[in-house]
Structure formats: C-alpha cells, structure tokens
Amino acid sequence: MTCKQLGGACEKEFHADTFESMADQSKKHAMEMFQRGDKAHLDAMNKMQELMQTPDAMKEWFENKRKEFNSL
C-alpha cells in the first residue's frame, strides 16, 4: 500500500505481511516527514488528527484500511 492509501500524502510504497507491520512502517515514515516539516504530510496528519477526535470514525477508517490491505 502507499502512503496516500494509508491517509498520507505521497506514493511511497510499504510492503508487509501483516496490516500491523504496514501501519508501523507508515507511522515511521510519518514521523520522518514530520521531522522534515513536509507540508503535504503535515496537512495529512492534521486530517488524521481530526478523524481521531471521533473514536467510532477512527475505528471505521482503520477497519476499512485493514480490509483494503487484506484484499491486496
């Protein structure tokens, strides 16, 4: 899956055997982009933070991404 597919801002690809491993890779990438001050990624992170304000919405988003991962 790509960063963008996981709520990010670019086409960097992540490869993993489990969704959890994919999520970990995505988080590490997000932290790198945060430290660099990458505006596109910071905007994407702000959108994710808004989603996190509603636990049910975040849970639904997470499960949809898991289903997408499993379908690939």
Q: Which features does this protein show?
A:
72 residues; 0% strand; 68% helix; globular; mainly alpha
**Poorly predicted parts:** none
Radius of gyration: 12 Å
Mean pLDDT: 95
- What form results from the Cα inertia axes? globular
Give the tally of β-strands.
0
What is the chains' assembly state? single chain
What is the total number of structural domains?
1
SSE pattern:
HHH
Major sheet description = none
* Terminal-residue CA separation: 8 Å
Helix share of residues?
55-70%
Q: What's the total helix number?
A: 3
Structural class by sheet pairing and helices: mainly alpha
How much beta, percentage-wise? under 5%
What does this structure look like?
This protein has 72 residues and is mainly α. The chain has one domain (4-71). Helix content is 68%, strand content 0%. It is built from three helices and no strands. The chain has helices at residues 19-36, 39-52, 55-71. The longest helix is centred in the middle third of the chain and has 18 residues, at 19-36.
Compact summary:
The protein has 72 residues and is mostly helical.
